[in-house]
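Fold this sequence, please.
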Amino acid sequence: MSKILSLIIAVILVAFFQLGFLPGLSYNLTPLINLPLLFIVFVAFFYNAETAIITALFLGLLLDLYSTLFFGFHIILLLIEVLAIKFFILHILQNKNLVVFLLVNSLAVLIWQVIYLAVIIFQTDLTNQYFINILGQLLIHSVLILTFYKILPNFKFKLASQLVG
């Protein structure tokens, strides 16, 4: 019960920071730091599939309430992310270590950006800035993961090259 409650609180905080705090700091940070995606990568990597799917549904619902896109977009997108991450972890990758986690994060960012691009391509004119933001998001997410790896000993312990089981 405490795991569910802590995930609910974490989802609310992630949505709050993404929707309220980051745009308040700078509008340039919002396309570069995607906290909900990073959170889903962590949950899908370390928790079982059911927990990751429930988290994706709740986080997607919160994001859809404030989104200008059609309702359900973020729910579908986060569910696709969870399913893709779980597929790659269980069927392609052999262990859970830092390199695999960075690879899963990169895969998640690319999936997010491709689907997001497919939806907004007819609504806006794309500039080179969009593609620079993709590279920036890959870089910033990787730096955040490496920072967590350095400062959080529990995170480092969980990525101690365990075989996927």
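The beta strands are 95-96, 162-163. Helices lie at 2-25, 35-46, 49-65, 73-92, 98-120, 128-151, 153-158.
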